[in-house]
Amino acid sequence: VLTEYPSFIGALAAFTSFGARLRGVALDEEGIEIQRLAEVLDGLPAAPKFLYINPYFHNPAGIIYSQERKQRLRELAEERDLMILEDDPYGELYFDQADRPLTLPIKASTGSEATVCYVGSFAKILGPGMRLGWLLAPPAIAEKCELAKQSTDACSSTFTQVLAHAFLAGGHLPGYLTMLRTTYRRRAGTMLAALKEHMPPQVTWTTPRGGFYVWVSMPETLDASRVFEASIARGAAFVIGSAFDPEGRRNNCFRLAFSHTPEEKIARGVEIIGDAVTAELHNV
Ligand SMILES: Cc1ncc(COP(=O)(O)O)c(C=O)c1O
Known about the structure:
Layout: E1 2-5, H1 13-16, E2 23-28, E3 31-32, H2 34-43, E4 51-53, H3 67-80, E5 84-87, H4 106-110, E6 116-121, E7 133-136, H5 139-153, H6 158-169, H7 173-198, E8 204-205, E9 213-217, H8 224-232, E10 239-240, E11 253-257, H9 263-283
Parallel strand pairs: 1-2, 1-4, 4-5, 5-6
Antiparallel strand pairs: 2-3, 6-7, 8-9, 9-11, 10-11
Helix pairs in contact: 7-9, 8-9
The structure holds pyridoxal-5'-phosphate.
């Protein structure tokens, strides 16, 4: 299975538990690097089962794919008969209405002939505990997914399905999304301002246009686990980079989330983490 680096490899746990091996292909600010993807495909001993991507407000990188990158991915997928699993739990959480067209799924925005399985979720727009999502896939794949789902939990909770239906049918989702977008945009702004204030100049980070996350890159000699230990001792937590490396190696990056935490705490947390990074830079 191919995926981006960094990647939310937790979404692939079901496949790795059956022995699937993961291979990461680097991302930049516009999406997966197409040239790298072609090279990796050329070097594989057998065709991969599929490519897993998270194009809209990526977890953990925070980026959104450009239309051009999606188009080039579509062309490569068609050329190489590469199946894509397009995971989209954050697409509704854009900060600027002008970015909305970029959140159109690959099939809708490029008219692709490639096989694309599109996955959505209520986890980030209503409640993760509801355990409800949806899948758009060719019938043969959808049937297999149904079998796998039935053998996992028999059926999604009818109670949470009734709640989600009432929320949607009552017309509550658009207003709720507007509130989420406003809140997350503000929190992201606070986090970016705090990073600018507290991070040493050797550190870089992505500028999210939606979603939950900022991906921070330190010089390659630094270890995010050590920064984590120093930060958590003073009350600030984040997720270390190796948790997002399909090959589990690189650990000079880390993921910050601005979604859950009020602004004052974000500013304080980033200050604590900035101190820890600065101290670590002086140590190595
Ligand atoms: C990219 C991505 N996919 C899937 C999920 C999980 O979604 P669900 O709770 O619907 O299984 C998450 C949650 O963190 C995520 O970030």
